[in-house]
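LOG
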Amino acid sequence: MPVKIRLQRHGKKGKPFYWVVAADSRSKRDGKFLEKIGTYDPNTNPATIDINVDSAVQWLHNGAQPTDTARAILSYKGALLKHHLDGGVRKGALTQEQADAKFAAWLEEKDSKVNAKKDGLSTEKADAKAKALEAEKKVNEDRIAAKKEAEAAAVAEEAAEETTAEAEENTTSEENTEETQA
């Protein structure tokens, strides 16, 4: 029975969520499987991957072949590296302690990279929020300035109308006084 390590799709339309499973290669994509090895959620940034590395390595030792995507996921989480190091231990090139030390060092380096990416994303998000707030403040200041200019123009227009009305009254009153004198 040829065994494949592959993804089994779950989740709703447009929001995929995958189980990483060991399954008979003849079974359907979302059909019967032998063991659930982990989960993969591509909807988050960075993608959330939860794999039982020991179980995956055991299946790899037994001859299970991962699909291309499953191979990338197993490589990302270090299951293929651990399988490779275990091969070195079986051949006598390494001791188990050396292999465990190399794997632990690799895991620490990988975790630091993932944390750096998460920190970078959070700072980008904070910077974008700050820029949006600054742009909104500028727009509000421009609106307030335009409102003040409009009010000043309205006041100046009223003053101009009042002075023209007073000038007209003065000219009509002068005409009336001239007519009464004549």
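LOG (cont.) second protein
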Amino acid sequence: MVSSGPAEVPAEESGRRLLQRRFTARLLPQLRLLVEECAAREGLCEPRRGEFVLAVDEIAGNAVEHAGGSGRLELRQVGDELECRISDAGPGFSEEVIPELLPGLDGATQGRGLWLARLVADRFAVTGGTPGTTGATGAVVTLSVRLR
């Protein structure tokens, strides 16, 4: 269940697109419901579905709070995985900022959502830049869980 180290991310063209949305804080509740519906339709069972939706919500909330108030979500089925890619145009960050221990236990005051997302994902990666742009700031967080 826990991913360790950098993960290979499938090529952007692979997979079947299930959902693509731009979002702001006002749209986060609707986004959660859409992700939940897609995950259920693709066969992701509880409790993994709830964990996945929570992780996606944490990352989307971070994009709103720390990266300019909006972001873009793309949900796809890639092989036997449900993959979510969230991008933003904020200042960017790297996986090194994610605490190894539960934030609060190691003195960190931030990073709980990222820590949780990395914990529940079967595959997790943070890359810089916004897809389709050149020289842009921002981050792309990709997390996936196995469907079977």
